[in-house]
Structures are given as C-alpha cells and as structure tokens.
Amino acid sequence: MTTHVLILCTHNAARSILAEGMLNHWAERLGRDVRAHSAGSAPSGRVNPFALEALQAAGVDTAPCRSKSWDEFSQRDAPPLALVITVCDSAAAEQCPVFFGANGDGSQPVKVHWGYPDPSHAEGGDDGKRRAFELTRQALGYRMLQLAQLPFDTLDRQALQAALSHIGHS
Fold it and tell me: What is the rounded CA–CA span in Å between residue 7 and residue 158?
C-alpha cells in the first residue's frame, strides 16, 4: 500500500516543491512505495524557477511540479495521508499552515514540522538565490532520503512520530 506524504508551506512555490521532488526521487530510486505531494495554504500559483533549476540539476523530474492549494487534499477522492510535514520557517515569523484535514476514514495523519528559511529571500542576487536553493534542496533531500527509508508498514503512530523527530534533529 502506498504511503502518501503531504508537504506544506504557505505558497507552495519553493521549499515544499523541493521536498516533494526529492522524496519522490528517492522513493523511486530506492524502490519504495512512498508518494510525496505538496501544497500551500495560500498557493502562489507558480513554482519558483530556482526550485525547478535546483531539482533539475540534481536529476529530479520536475514535470509534475505545480503550485496548488491544500484544498485538493481535503476532498473525498484525495489520497489517504499517512504524514503531513510543514517546512515553513516559524523562526522567521512566517505563518505556518495547520492542516486539519482527515483521511476518508476519519483518521488523522501524523504531523511534523521541519522548518527551513525561505531561499527565495536570499541575498546576493540570482547567484545568492541559486546557492540558497541548492543548499535547501540538499538539506531537504537528506531528510527525505531518511524518510523514504522508513519501514512505514511496521511503524505505529508513536514509533513513526519518534522516527520523524529523530530525522528532524539530524
């Protein structure tokens, strides 16, 4: 059974897109039945071109990348979510979205916050932004690699929460 992961940020244009791309990339490479999705509470409607550039440079397929609302994951036909990850930077006073959606069976997904500064606010012109996006992609990619390797079918909610906390501190 596929494990569905939703990665949220406010605008779904940079960090959540990077995380979605990296988790799907690692899951495919490792042969894991994990599927990442991303969304925003106030989607911008466009993916930051530096996010696409960073993913493409890492060999990640960006064709499925699009900025979309989290409302898609509250619909009756939405995939059942095992996990919701927020990646906004509450340390920078960003409004981090809180996902209240439940699965079709009424169950709540496990939730975790892994905050990252928004690379689109990096200084240094385009070169500075490219560096910031690549560093963010690498950091998210490392966590997504660890996440893709989890034995989801053997973890209960408490064990999954502990594993996610451990990844978050790595």
Answer: 20
Identify which of 42, 52, 54, 15 has the alpha carbon closest to the alpha carbon of residue 140.
Answer: 15
> How many Cα atoms within 13 Å fall on the side-chain side of residue 100?
0
Asked if the 3-160 domain carries CATH number 3.30.565.10, the reply is no
Listed by start position, the domains of the chain span: 3-160
Number of Cβ atoms within 10 Å of the Cβ of 31: 7
Cβ–Cβ under 8 Å, residues 35 and 24 = yes
Q: Which of 29, 51, 54 is nearest to 38 (CA)?
A: 51
Alpha helix (H) ranges present in the chain? 15-30, 49-57, 125-148, 157-168
Q: Could you report the per-residue pLDDT of 59-94, keeping only the tens digit for each?
A: 999 999 999 999 999 888 889 999 999 998 865 455
Burial class (CB in 10 A: 0-12, 13-18, 19+), 156: exposed
Would you say 35 and 3 are in contact if contact means Cβ atoms under 8 Å apart? yes
